[in-house]
Structures are given as C-alpha cells and as structure tokens.
Amino acid sequence: MARVAAIILAAGESSRFGRPKQLIRLDGKPLIRRVVDEAHDANCRPIIVVAGNSKDEIRGELRATNATIIENQNWEDGIGTSIRAGIRHLIGTEAGIEAVVLLVCDQPFVNSQTIRGLIALYAETKKPIVASRYAKTIGVPALFDRLCFSELVALDGDSGAKTIISSNPARVAELMFPDGAIDIDTIEDWERLDRSLGV
Fold it and tell me: pTM for this structure?
C-alpha cells in the first residue's frame, strides 16, 4: 500500500468569518481536530498541519494527536506559501513518501472515506493527481504524487493547488465528491450546519 502523507492547510486568518475557522466547534469538535482525526483514520502518515497566526491555539487543540504542527511565517502572502511550507517540511523529514493529500479545514464533510477514495483511485489509475469534483469545479481535497512535489513548491503565494490540477487535465483522475461544495464561509453557515448535525 502506498505511503501517503496529509498536509492540512490551517494558516489563514478567516477574515470573512471574523475569527479563525480552524478553531470553531462543529458538533462539539474543533474543525482542525475533525480533519486531523479523519486523516489519521485514513492511515495518512505523517499528518502535517501548517499553521499561521493561530499556531499556539491549534497546537493546544492537537496536543493529543500525532499531527506535526509547523509554522508558516509568510501565511499572509497566500495559500501557496502554506503549501510550499508543508511540502518542504515533508521532503526534508520523510523519506519514502509516495504521495500527499492536501486538505483544508472548512469542508466539513471531508472524512476518512473521502480520503481513502482519493488514495484508492490513485492506486487504481496510476495518475499523478487525484482531485475532488464538485459544483462544476475540481479541487481539494486532492492527492499529489511525489512527482508533483516540485510544482507544489514552486507555487506563487496566492496560487492554490487548483492551478496545478487545471494545468494538464490528462494527468488528473477525478473523485466525485458533491459534498465538497459545502464549506463554512460565514457565521450563519456554521450555525446552520452545527444545528443540523446536532439533530
């Protein structure tokens, strides 16, 4: 079975939300802890969390997990800097990793089954990229073979993984994930979803 790592991008300040989304609780659990637990249950090793201005709070929430928290001091320059920081750490500390799954915190329906689906499609198709398809777009969560690490490290600060996914569709396998379109952008989104999960 392929050795697949997970990088969780958790460095943003969530300006539209008004406070760090990574730390809000959904059904009693912080979003950052939810995604770390799902990556763990999908057998991703290691699990790297890229944090920014909320690094101390995130570290506190994840103390009981096996996640490695690294700081992106340039997080204000865009998500590409967090992807670079995570990949560089992975390259520098882990030998033998075949692929990495990129995850974010505000897609509440990403679970271990979703992540396992990406890994299974990677094994089946041998494509270097496996991305999620939802709402007429394609994006994260997405898996990248080690062959793509140099492209991830070369991303501009404000460029995300979708830039690489879209650059050559022939090398991308798609996992249908309709619930990937559901994310938490506002307080109202969070409150509505939390109520529905608590029923």
Answer: 0.94
